[in-house]
Structures are given as structure tokens and as C-alpha cells.
Design a protein that fits this description.
Length: about 170
């Protein structure tokens, strides 16, 4: 077994183990911390797949911004066991059915994966940020600039709406 395969299996174990701990943790803050570890394991997989840009964006966006937002919301809501509402049996039953369906899809995809041939990359430059930048700023320059103007106008609109509500 090569080092890449060993690293892949280690990261897969960490991702699966921490994702189970996200669901099973009693404390919501611990659950968020396990989710951050899961995101880092996913980033390791992206880097192994030669998708460095997606891996770095995963760390910045998910493990950075979204998890900090989750932590703030959890700490502001101040969950207590006494204030938690009782879930009806129908919700529990729907959750069990959904979990079973996800398990069936996972098993079917694993069986399909075992029967297929592995993908071999002919070009080792696939997924590099340099190539993404070339394509983004050559072929898609106009849509990129239009989207940036759209984001800027949305940000200015949000600031104006927030100002009107405060006055």
C-alpha cells in the first residue's frame, strides 16, 4: 500500500468517525468542533485529488466562516435540556426512514464504485489554481465581472436597507 492510499484511508476514517461524533455528541459546541475536524479531513481528500483550490476554499469558507457562525448561534441561543421541546414520534420515524434511505444509497454507490474502473489522470495540471485563474480571467472575464458588480450592488442594497430600518 502506498503512502497516498494510507493517507486516504486515514482521512476517510477520521471523516467518518468525526461525522458520527457530530451526530452523537450531546453538547452542541462539541458537535461543531467535530464538524470542523470533518471539514479538515475533506480538505485532505481534495488535496489528494489534486484539487488544491477547492481544498483551500473549503477551509476558508466552511471551517472558517460557517463554523464560526454556527458557534456564535449556538452560544447565543444557549441550549438547555429543560428548554428543548419534545419531538413527536412521527418526526423520529421520518428521521429513521430518511437515514435508512441514505444508507441504501451509500451501499448502492459503494457497490457501483467497486465494479467501475479507477480514473487515471493524463494531465497532472488539472485542478491547479494557476489553470483556474487562466480560464476564469480569459474565457469567463465578462461573467466574472458582472457577478462582482451584482455582489457589490447587493452589498450596497443590504447596507441601505439596514440603515433605513435603524432610522
Amino acid at each position: 500500500m502506498t503512502i497516498t492510499q494510507s493517507l486516504f484511508y486515514f482521512l476517510a476514517f477520521v471523516a467518518i468517525f468525526c461525522s458520527l461524533l457530530v451526530v452523537l455528541a450531546k453538547n452542541p459546541v462539541h458537535s461543531v468542533l467535530y464538524l470542523i475536524i470533518t471539514f479538515f479531513a475533506f480538505t485532505g481528500h481534495y488535496i489528494l485529488l489534486n484539487a488544491q483550490f477547492v481544498g483551500i476554499v473549503n477551509i476558508i469558507v466552511y471551517a472558517g466562516a460557517i463554523m464560526v457562525l454556527f458557534l456564535f448561534v449556538i452560544m447565543l441561543l444557549n441550549f438547555n435540556e429543560g428548554t428543548e421541546t419534545h419531538k413527536p414520534n412521527l418526526v423520529k420515524f421520518a428521521g429513521a426512514i430518511t437515514g435508512g434511505l441514505v444508507l441504501v444509497v451509500l451501499v448502492a454507490s459503494l457497490q457501483t464504485l467497486q465494479q467501475s474502473n479507477p480514473v487515471k489522470l493524463n494531465n497532472a495540471d488539472i485542478g491547479l489554481v494557476k489553470n483556474l485563474g487562466k480560464v476564469l480571467f480569459n474565457e469567463f472575464l465578462l461573467p466574472f465581472e458582472v457577478v462582482s458588480i451584482l455582489f457589490l450592488s447587493a452589498m450596497v442594497g443590504a447596507v441601505l436597507l439596514a440603515r433605513k430600518e435603524n432610522n
